[in-house]
Amino acid sequence: MYKALEISHFKSVEQASVEFGQINVLVGGNGTGKSNVVDALRFVRDAAMHGLDRAISDRHGIDSIRQWSPTRPFRIRIAVAFEIDDGRAAYDFSIDSKNGQFSISKEDALLEHVQEVSSEDEDGKPEDYWFMARTRLLRALDGSYQITKQQVGIEPTDGPPDWRLLDKATATGSGGKLDQSDDLALFTRHAWELTRLRRACSQFQAYSIFPNTLRQPQEPSNETYLLPEGRNLASVFKRMRRTRRGVEAINQITEAMRKLLPSLERISILSVGGYLVPQFHMMERERRHIFNVSQLSDGTLRVFGLLTALYQEPKPDVIALEEPEQTINPGVLPVLADSIKEVSKRTQIFITTHSPHLLDQFDPNDVISVDIENGRTRVGKVGQVQIDAVRHRLFTLGELLISEGLHP
Fold first, then answer.
1. Ramachandran category for residue 220: left, alpha or beta (phi over 0 → left; psi -120 to 50 → alpha)
2. pLDDT tens track for 276-330
3. How many C-beta atoms surround the C-beta of residue 231 within 10 A?
4. CA of 407: how far to CAs of 122, 372, 384, in Å?
5. Number of Cβ atoms within 10 Å of the Cβ of 233
6. What's the half-sphere exposure (Cβ side, CA atoms, 13 Å) at 19?
7. Beta strands 205-207 and 264-272, pairing class
8. What is the reported pLDDT for 129?
9. What stretch of H or E contains 384?
10. pTM of the predicted model as reported, rounded to 2 decimal places
11. Per-residue CA distances from 97 to 45, 56, 73, 130, 137 (Å)
12. Residue-level pLDDT at 255
């Protein structure tokens, strides 16, 4: 999961540093830049999966993602920190640009992990110890890079590992120079020893799902995850029926949908004319009816899409929902919030919103305030004064958002 993010000069964000939890609700008005914060994480994902050049091209070029400057172009920097199963990881890179061209000025990738190892001593008695390892990649402006490894064995302890012990370990390494100076070294074949960090960077799925997309006929597809606009929802839903976990997820989706459609019995996928069509089986007045997506309201259909994004199998490590409150009746938002909290037990969740009704469903410590001052986005956890006001039940988060706004 993502533990922290630092951004410099990315779109409207001049400088930002923020820590993350299992649920992260980014709150701010239109145009404050909350989507830019999420897009920084998505940018890293796109660079990991498709290459930096495409990640920049998909955003209409380097000038569109670099914060505007009247003089010398700013240097873009993105740094992310991760918590992994048995350790931690971090990735930090900077991009320079001039005349519409870009180059990588810095790249620093770090992976640290610990493993419990069982062996026997000379007398054949069981002996356990911890094996700690650090792998680091450093890359220079000219495309040259160095990968170093440090390892040490220590006695097991009750507390967390002391990563400083690795500082004294002997370092071994190798290096080289990239063929293309605009490639990020972490995502090339040279950095295979940092595969776990590469996977952490790529496990981010962001969704902006709207009813019109879900109403269009969908051809069968083989993508692992739901696509950002939900264009393969029917295929994902149909495939989920093949596994036990998938069936459990469908049952959770159906149960949540019953709070909107009390007469709903089940949801199926019909194959017709080479397309896949979701069907909603209803029992009304002791008679069964089948509704298709064209017969559901915009809000109901969007909730179905968002629930599928949340409960899909296999589950992404990280899911982001862009303004999930749109087209949805405020009275239904608690249903969506309950599902978000349930899924967050296994998946890290990011939400962007400016809905006071949705905001009131979450703990103040889960909220990240995003506002804008002099054209520059500010990001941070909600200030302690406002958190105390909510804790003492003087106001709700939604009331504070409406009356004075939430501030870092």
1. beta
2. 999 999 998 778 999 999 999 999 999 999 999 999 999 999 999 999 999 999 9
3. 17
4. 62, 10, 10
5. 25
6. 4
7. unpaired
8. 73
9. helix 384-391
10. 0.91
11. 21, 12, 7, 44, 23
12. 97
> What is the number of other CB atoms lying within 10 angstroms of the CB of residue 344?
17
Find tokens 């709150």 and name the residue.
27
Peptide bond into 314 cis (omega under 30): yes
CA–CA distance, 51 with 202 (Å, rounded to integer)? 11
Compute the distance between CA of residue 383 and CA of residue 109 in angstroms, rounded to an integer: 32
The token pair that represents 300 in the structure block = 């109901």
Q: Give the pLDDT of residue 85.
A: 85
Both tokens of residue 89? 């990881």
Name the segment(s) of the chain with CATH classification 3.40.50.300.
Answer: 208-362
What is the amino acid identity at position 345?
K
- Judge whether 198 and 110 are in contact, CB under 8 Å: no
- Nearest to 292, CA basis, from 304, 302, 303, 281: 281
Low-confidence ranges of the chain (pLDDT < 50): none
Write down the CATH superfamily of domain 208-362: P-loop containing nucleotide triphosphate hydrolases (3.40.50.300)
